[in-house]
Write a structure and sequence with these properties.
The structure is a single chain. By secondary structure, the protein is an alpha/beta fold. Helices cover 44% and strands 16% of the residues. A seven-stranded parallel sheet has the order 3-2-1-4-5-6-7, with helices on both faces. Helix 1 (15-31) crosses helix 8 (186-201). It starts with a strand and ends in a 5-residue tail after the last helix. Residues 36-173 form the Glycosyltransferase subfamily 4-like N-terminal domain. This is Glycosyltransferase. One of its GO terms (molecular function) is glycosyltransferase activity. InterPro entries: Glyco_trans_4-like_N (IPR028098).
């Protein structure tokens, strides 16, 4: 199984969510060494917590060389599509605003998973302009509806996903406590089991 993680985008990401995503990558690599993992990161300088290839053998980390692709959402998604076309992962697990129409059209068999981690732009009165709220809302709603699986960090986020975007609970996985970087804890096992279920449904051998 080849799983690609896409870390980037412009929807708000909390510190807790970022740590959870990095811990999930580390836990899956540690607990399931047979799983090939690739990480596509928009700006590697902002993700110092990423597992280094020397520490996590078998993990490949890619990021755009061009400054424009690291700072422009359109060019970042175009770069991401190019990496998927070249490396052909079985499953893509990403942040909330990476699943564009073009990406899904170009790769109709690619299974997509999205992590939902923050609804503050809908519930907090300050900190966001009207256009930011509107943009983030559209991005997150579209990604949740397109993804085969939505991962929520806790029950509250899962309830908000149902409330705001009408995603059925059978398409939501509650990740729970932050995965252990040593591979322990239930979160990594739950995520990996969900990956295998999605791929088996599409006929991909795990």
């Amino acid at each position: 199984m080849k799983v690609a993680f896409a870390i980037g985008g412009y929807c708000p990401v909390t510190w807790q969510a970022r740590q959870w995503n990095i811990a999930a990558v580390r836990a899956i690599v540690s607990r399931f060494p047979e799983c090939r993992v690739e990480i596509y990161v928009q700006d590697r300088n902002r993700c110092a917590e990423l597992p280094l290839p020397a520490v996590m053998p078998g993990v490949q980390i890619y990021s755009p060389e061009r400054y424009a692709a690291r700072n422009c959402p359109v060019l970042w998604k175009r770069w991401l599509a190019g990496m998927i076309s070249r490396n052909r992962p079985d499953l893509l697990h990403g942040t909330s605003d990476i699943f564009s129409d073009r990406l899904l059209k170009d790769f109709p068999d690619l299974k997509c998973v999205v992590t939902v981690h923050d609804f503050s732009f809908l519930s907090v009165r300050t900190g966001f302009s009207w256009i930011q709220r509107h943009r983030y809302n559209i991005m997150l709603r579209r990604s949740c509806r397109r993804a085969a699986l939505v991962v929520s960090l806790d029950e509250s986020d899962a309830a908000d996903t149902v409330k705001y975007y009408f995603i059925p609970m059978d398409r939501i996985l509650v990740g729970g406590d932050c995965p252990s970087s040593s591979g322990g804890g239930p979160a990594a096992g739950k995520i990996m089991a969900a990956y295998e279920s999605l791929l088996q449904d599409s006929g991909v051998s795990c």
